[in-house]
Amino acid sequence: xxxxxxxxHPLVRxxxxxxxxxxxxMNIVGExxxxxxxxxxxxxxxxxxxxxxxxxxxxxxxxxxxxxRRAGHACKYIILTSxxxxxxxxxxxxxxxxxxxxxxxxxxxxxxxxxxxxxGRKYYDPVLxxxxxxxxxxxxxxxxxxxxxKELEVLMSLGKGRSNKEIANALYITEFTVKxxxxxxxxKLELADRTQxxxxxxxxxxxxxxxxx
Length: 213
What we know:
Blueprint: E1 2-6, H1 10-21, E2 27-32, H2 35-45, E3 49-53, E4 55-56, E5 59-60, H3 61-70, E6 76-81, H4 86-94, E7 99-102, H5 107-118, E8 123-124, H6 126-145, H7 149-159, H8 164-171, H9 175-189, H10 194-203
Parallel strand pairs: 1-2, 1-3, 3-6, 6-7, 7-8
Antiparallel strand pairs: 4-5
């Protein structure tokens, strides 16, 4: 696998070269300190993979990957970074970037990530995936905390597939009040309709799916 390293720190590039060169069938065909050098190397060497530093001084690794793709370079890309924001991480995922690896990772982790990407799969550092799950869990808890106790009861009733009339009878409120609560639940959770609300309640474990007899 022929690779290019894009990083604006010479010592970091040398360190990455040393690590990568220890792997089987891995060959560094060029090094670049900025995006323009990297684009020229892409034209000259047509590599299989580019290891891209996320923070390149005044430039950004994700912007480089998008520019390289627009120029027709359909090789694989792995972002190497010492830090990454949630928005950058989600952007990398939405752009289907092949991998993200932290610079604090062990050398064998980087080699493993390269091997995974070489086989056509995505590799995202386990530390980052844990961060994504924690962030998602925290956001979901915040969403549910915005519901009043009665709205939460209504959401659970929607998850059980109950009609407005059935909810009204179960909660001892009027159907008009049920409709008002349903509207509030949909608005607060940013859901389109009661079907989505029911699926949301099921997915969050608020209710269990019951087979109709």
